[in-house]
Structures are given as structure tokens and as C-alpha cells.
Write a structure and sequence with these properties.
single chain; alpha/beta; Rossmann fold; eight-stranded mixed beta sheet
Amino acid sequence: MRTFAILNMKGGVGKTTTAINLAYLLAAEYRQRVLLIDADPQANATRALLPDGDWAGLAGLLGGYATVYDEVVVSSGIPNLDVIPASDALWEIDLRERTGDGPLHGTANALRDLRDNAMEDDAYDVMVIDCPPNFSAACVAAINAANSIIIPVLPDAFSADGMDSLTMQISGVRKLHPDVRVAGCLVNQWHRSDVVVDATAYLRENAPVPVFDTVIRRTDKVLEATWAREPVQTWSPFSSAARDYRSWVKELVEKEGLNHGALAKPSFGFVGRGNARERVPFSPQAETEQSGLCGDEEGLGNG
């Protein structure tokens, strides 16, 4: 089983959107059994994929209130995609860790143990972990469980300057988990302008970790999808961001060697909005024919 942690210490770079769309595409188009773990107490991934509820979730696991992963897993309603939800109770976990107010044993290894148990049960093929923008107890647990780390970034100077610090912090965590690696940086909110093009080129030349070939273009459809509480893949499947995420997941699958036996080739997609999803054949030609739906995307015309 492969485990990807979506991580950046800077907020607002698209971690949650990346995690949701990666999990959705692996489940819907690559037919993988996916477990998305929301490790951010803001719980945005949880709200995007689950109805409102009083979930035990990850806080229950890290706090020792749940002893097996079955107790905290919730079905998303999307075939092949389950969720371990987050809640603001994760803040309490961090507070107890820092103040010593109550014993918390084994939080650093909690998600690694969950991963190993799920592997023994052959329950999932892939885990995707949406990390918070800080090295909280949940974030350290996520890195300890991960095979690969994906770093969403914006094409700005702050992201470029912050990656050196992030890489140093990851190196510190490697003392606990030497096998974790950075799969690459994913440039989000790309649009056609001199400063963005130059910044992306700078990242490719100077980043201390690999940068994916695919970039995710800026579009209001991503913001609309957050209000609709669903992946942009279902809200606006032919928007530039939806198409870019499909291209990026294909790149990730190939670079990580996941398409050789571990993952099947994509064969279908879910097109529709809300709960009215319809399974239709996946056709790049259909994407091209309907790309006129994307006229709102800045600097890209109908592309």
C-alpha cells in the first residue's frame, strides 16, 4: 500500500484541494481503494467529502479513544473512497502533547500502525493524508506513515524561500522514518503572466526537491467546488484545474511506478454535480470538445 502525505508549512497553497482530487481520481478513475485521512483540525477535506456529523475521527485514534481503524473510518459515498475525518479536537491533542496534560502514548506512530493494520487486512491500496500547515502531532504521524511527500506550492517568492526550511524539517523527521521521500512539488494557481512564468522557472531550477512537470492552472471553478463541498472533478470536470489534476495524477502514477501492477490504467470518470454523479466513459476527445466550458480561466481563453 502506498501512502502520500500532502504537506507544506505555508497555508493557502492548495494542500486540501490537492489531497481531495488525488484521492478522488485514484478511486474513481484508477479504481483504487483509497483512504483519505484529514489530519488538519480545520477539517476542510472532511467538510468537502462528508456530511456534517460528530465524528470520532483522527482525534479519536490519536487520543486513544479508538483502538482500531474501523472505528474511525467513514464512507464518503464515492465508490472506493473512505475518509478518516478531522475535527477541532485535534487542537486538544496538540495541547496535551505540549503541556503534558494527560498521557498520549504512541501518537507519532499511530498512522503508521493504522497503515500496517490496513495492509494486513488488504483493506486499501492507497492512503492520502491532508496535513496541517504546522508540525503538529497529526502531521508528524502522517510523515511517519508516508512513503512519499507531495508539496503543493504557489509560484511566489515565499514558497521558494520556504522550501529550504521545509526540507530541513523533513530531514529531522527522517530520523524517525528514514525511508520517507519527497515525490515532488506541485505548482498551484498557475496563470499566464511574466512573473508567474519566471517564478515557475526559478522553482524548477533552484528547488531542493523535484518539481512536477504538470502545473495546476488558476480557475474560479476550484473556489466554486469548495462551496459545493465536492471535488472540482465532479463540479466542473472540463475546467482547466480538473484537467490539470488528471494530468498530474497520471504523471504521479507513472513517476512513482504505480501503473505497473499496483494501479490500473484510468478507464472512466464521474461526471456530474452533487449527488447526481453519472459514470461515463473517460474520453480525452470529449474533454477537448467540451473545453469551451472553461472560458472563465484567466489568460487561457477557452483552454
